[in-house]
Design a protein that fits this description.
Elements lengths: L2 E6 L10 E6 L6 E11 L1 H7 L9 E2 L4 E8 L11 E4 L9 H4 L22 E3 L5 E4 L8 E5 L3 E3 L6 H22 L7 E4 L3 H13 L4 E5 L2 H10 L3 E4 L5 H8 L4 E6 L4 H9 L1 E9 L13 H6 L3 E4 L7 H13 L9 E5 L4 H9 L5 E5 L3
Bound molecules: nicotinamide-adenine-dinucleotide and zinc ion (ZN) (2 copies).
Nicotinamide-adenine-dinucleotide (NAD) binds next to helix 1, helix 3, helix 4, strand 12 and helix 7.
Length: about 375
């Protein structure tokens, strides 16, 4: 049965998203429809909203969310209505060799941007009948439809508002250190950009036993949060010389830097502070067309490296439940991450706060 919802729809970059009546279709074969509980406000969606990343429109945004399965399409075997789920923003096929290998970021047949796996939408403008595009899982909607493989069942005693954060920032940041960098106890990690994603890289470094954990940001509020999450040293990139200050803490440079902001300036710093054999992990997504300039001799001379990481190089089916266990055991702080609470009709305000550099994560909670 089609459902009618009121959602913010991106119709033009740098313009407020109007609340719009949209019809949500039934899930097709291999899909589930989820009644959303909460959705975190990620800078990736802000990149679409502010026009720094080219985005097709009209589109429903949102890449970080949790909810309860409302209905399932034919052939769905792993979920039933009533299951609590975290949505993975990687709409991957679930069956190709990389998917089977637990590497959904390498999927051979992911959904095209704006659509589900079959290249069609489940949202239509209720007045015009025009299709409305999905930003990945489109979690800024009271109901959304995703492939079965992108709704990961979780235990029912996990608070769904905290669970939503695991859908992007927690898994991405944490996994950048534990999976992509593979930091070991006692290795040094510097996190450049300590917003929603970077704070969780700090947590990943803390849980991995890294030392020192150097937080670098242009905002004192973000740095104070990083300290709470386990950073041992703080550097304000707006006031201090990042390279000189880092070398005072680690005279031979750091083992790993995590670039968790979409800024090539920050990435430049992330490379310059690497020690011999050190690796920078790129998480942040600079504006379209931005180019990172490198001195190849600096890279080759001491065998430094740079690698990208999508979603913290994680396998959400394994890592979402693991992160929940860490949270419930008191070893992962999700409670302090949320610094702003919003209703779905306040998503424009949530973006404006994030754009101004508001520390921590905003969270949209849906009426139940
Ligand atoms: N790779 C992935 O899978 C993935 C997943 C999620 C988000 N992202 C990207 O990661 C980036 C961060 O996302 P977020 O939601 O944490 O954003 P955010 O806005 O919450 O955090 C960015 C932080 O960087 C700081 N900052 C800005 N300029 C800086 C500089 N020059 N040096 C140091 N710090 C600086 C800001 O003060 C802020 O604290 C975005 O580009 C987003 O698109 C990537
Ligand atoms: Zn995100
Ligand atoms: Zn696949």
């Amino acid at each position: 049965m089609d459902l009618l919802i009121d959602v913010p729809v991106l119709v033009a970059a740098q313009q407020k998203m109007p609340m719009t009546k949209v019809v949500v279709a039934d899930p097709k074969a291999g899909e589930v429809r989820v009644k959303m509980f909460a959705s975190g406000v990620c800078h990736s969606c802000l990149h679409a909203y502010d026009g720094s990343h080219a985005t097709p429109m009209p589109m429903i945004l949102g890449d970080e969310g949790s909810g309860i399965v409302e209905s399932v399409g034919s052939g769905v075997t792993t979920l039933v209505p009533g299951d609590h789920v975290i949505i993975s923003w990687l709409l991957n096929c679930g069956t190709c060799p990389p998917c089977r290998d637990g590497k959904p970021a390498h999927c051979w047949a992911p959904s095209p941007f704006g659509a589900l796996l079959d290249n069609t939408q489940r949202f239509k403008n209720a007045e015009t009948g025009e299709s409305v595009l999905h930003y990945g899982p489109a979690t800024y909607a009271p109901y959304t439809v995703v492939p079965e493989s992108s709704a990961i069942k979780i235990r029912k005693d996990m608070p769904l508002d905290k669970a939503a954060l695991i859908g992007c920032s927690v898994t991405t940041g944490f996994g950048s250190v534990t999976n992509a960098a593979g930091a070991r106890p006692g290795e040094s990690v510097a996190i450049v950009g300590c917003g929603g994603v970077g704070l969780n890289a700090v947590q990943g470094a803390r849980v991995a036993g890294a030392n020192p954990i150097i937080a670098i940001d242009t905002s004192d509020a973000a740095l104070q949060m990083a300290k709470k999450f386990g950073a041992t040293h703080l550097i304000n990139a707006a006031r201090e010389d990042v390279v000189a200050e880092t070398l005072k803490i680690c005279p031979r440079g750091v083992n790993y830097s995590i670039a968790a902001v979409g800024s090539t300036k920050a990435m430049q710093n992330g490379v310059e502070i690497l020690g011999a054999g050190g690796t920078m992990v790129i998480l942040g997504a600079p504006p379209n067309g931005a180019v990172l300039e490198l001195d190849p001799i600096f890279i080759l001379g001491r065998e430094r490296g740079i690698r990208g990481s999508k979603y913290g190089s994680s396998n959400p089916h394994v890592e979402f439940p693991m992160l929940i266990e860490l949270y419930l055991a008191g070893k992962l702080d999700l409670d302090s991450l949320v610094t702003g609470n919003y209703r779905i009709d306040q998503s424009n305000e949530a973006f404006e706060v994030l754009a101004k550099g508001g520390a921590g994560r905003g969270l949209i909670t849906f009426d139940q």
